[in-house]
Amino acid sequence: MQERLENILLAVSRSADIDGGQLDKATETILEAIMDGLQITRVGIWLFKGSTHEMSSQLIIDKNSSDTSQTLKISEDDYPDYFATLRNERTIIANNAKQHPATHELAEYMTAYGIYGMLDVPLRHKGEMVGVLCCESRKAERKWTEDEVAFAGILADIYGRAMSSAERVQFEQMLLKQNEQLEAIVEQRTKSLQEALDNFKQAQDRLVETEKMAALGKLVAGVAHEVNTPLGIAVTATTHCEHRLKKLRTAFEDGSISRKQLATFISDTFDAYTLLSSNLERAASLIQNFKKTAVDQSSFELVECALADYLNALVISLKPMVKKKKVSISIDADERIKVKTYQGALAQIITNLVSNCHEHAFTEADEKHHISISVEAHEDGAVVRFKDNGKGMETRTLKSIFEPFYTTARDHGGSGLGLSIVYNLVTRKLKGQIDVQSTPGEGSEFILLIPNL
Ligand SMILES: Nc1ncnc2c1ncn2[C@@H]1O[C@H](COP(=O)(O)OP(=O)(O)OP(=O)(O)O)[C@@H](O)[C@H]1O
Ligand SMILES: [Mg+2]
Predict the structure, then answer these.
(1) How far apart are CA 181 and CA 187, in angstroms?
(2) Most confident range, picked from 192-196, 251-255, 336-340
């Protein structure tokens, strides 16, 4: 091949335009090289459109015309011989194009642009013919040399290379865009998930708070009821005394008072006062115990808790809750066992367990119903065993009791939150452990490990 042509090919091959991904730029570079190499003034790239029966011009460069922006189209219907030859995928070398069997149909086109010779080289991409490189000579009797044909062929191949690069860059950009979209979606989803989680946490906190207040509410109702009884007796005793005193005053003013009458009055009054003071004392002790446990149920503070003392006071407050079903509660704890913990949380846990016994373990009133709470020292703190002799639980129930909203008493107003809150309080707040064992018909036992905090 002529050195001049070789040099042009080398320059094109090395040009950054070819593999840069911008097909327009690469096409221009290739067409300029063709014009330079073949010394022609008009050259174009034509590509099949949809099928191999129709082609349109992709880019035409014409040194004699400044406006080549118009897209030209040709179809097999008008140029059957030309299309039939192209389908052989061989280069058409037409020195006198108007006479050549492959190009004679294009006579009108040639006249319009002053063309004599044509060198049409197939363009291939991924092994398929996609169009032609049309080199057009305006010189009469132009003879395309072998070198020129080879030169045009190589540039046609370089065009295929440029097409692949453009496709690759397009894919890369698409991937990049998809990646960005994906990242945006992931970010959006993460945000929504985070929001949902935050909402869930808030809802959970609210539920814990509500349940805490509900447990406290039950306690208040029970204690209020219990305090009402001794206070009622005290009021009756006072009224009785007042009545007797009035009678005594009348007799005294009449001067009709007898010694016997006075003696009866004094004895009655003593009885009334004994009743009065014992009932007032009972009311006061109930209030005292209630204060000890209820106050810190709503505010959790870390304290050194003497378990025996604390549980005794708590149970006195809780007894009214289970009184209807005649449930007795006993405590077996060494006075010396102390644990540094949130005793308010512990009170809430025991309140929930007692409430569950009343709701689920014992169905009717029976003197035999019993809850025993025992405390043992443990190297980390203390172990509290809470045991009832109620109806117990089936394995299926036992598996789910700590799950939020699991309840077998939805019809009776159970929300299924009691034990899930107990679980959270023991494991999270008190950093302890909770375990449960149960036999249907025999009862249940909750075992709590309460560590020193
Ligand atoms: N001591 C028990 N004896 C028998 N079954 C029990 C006992 N404690 C709990 N259960 C069972 O465990 C379930 C879940 O208890 P949990 O305290 O979580 O909910 P609940 O008592 O049904 O409703 P809530 O406490 O919210 O009012 C109960 O529905 C009940 O079936
Ligand atoms: Mg419950």
Answers:
(1) 10
(2) 336-340
Q: Which amino acid, 250?
A: T
Q: Residue 357 CA: which ligand 1 atom is closest? A: 1
Q: Which CATH architecture has domain 300-453?
A: 2-Layer Sandwich (3.30)
Helix axes 259-298, 307-322, angle to 10 degrees: 110
* CATH code, residues 3-172: 3.30.450.40
Note the residue count of the chain. Answer: 453
Supply 157's token pair. Answer: 């191949």
Range list for CATH 3.30.565.10 in the chain: 300-453
Percent helix, strand, coil in the chain, to 5, is: 55, 20, 25
Pocket test for ligand 1, best of 350, 359, 425 (most atoms within 8 A of CB): 359
Helices and strands, counts by H and E, the chain: 11, 13
Q: Which residue has the tokens 């698409």?
A: 174
196-224 confidence digits (pLDDT tens):
999 988 887 777 777 766 766 766 776 77
Which of the listed residues 372, 402, 419 should we mutate to test ligand 1's pocket, taking the one with most ligand atoms within 8 A of CB? 419
Check if 444 has its Cβ closer than 6 Å to any atom of ligand 1. yes
Q: Which of 407, 424, 435, 444 to mutate to test the pocket of ligand 1 (most atoms within 8 A of CB)?
A: 407
Please work out whether the CB of residue 390 comes within 6 Å of at least one atom of ligand 1.
yes
Query: Is there a contact between 20 and 173 (Cβ–Cβ < 8 Å)?
Result: no
Asked whether the beta carbons of 434 and 423 are under 8 A apart, the reply is yes
pLDDT digits over 307-347, tens only? 999 999 899 888 888 888 999 999 999 999 999 999 888 98
How far is it, in rounded angstroms, from Cα 163 to Cα 126? 9
Give residues with Cβ within 8 angstroms of 251, minimum separation 6: 257, 261
Strands (E), 234-278: none
State if residue 407 touches ligand 1 by the CB under 6 angstroms criterion.
Answer: yes
What residue owns the CA closest to ligand 1's atom 29? 407
Say how many Å lie between the first and final Cα of the chain, rounded: 92
Q: Where in the chain is the domain with CATH 3.30.450.40?
A: 3-172
The residue whose two tokens read 């065009």 is 159
| Protein residue closest via CA to atom 2 of ligand 1 | 361
Measure 180 CA to ligand 1 centroid, in angstroms.
50
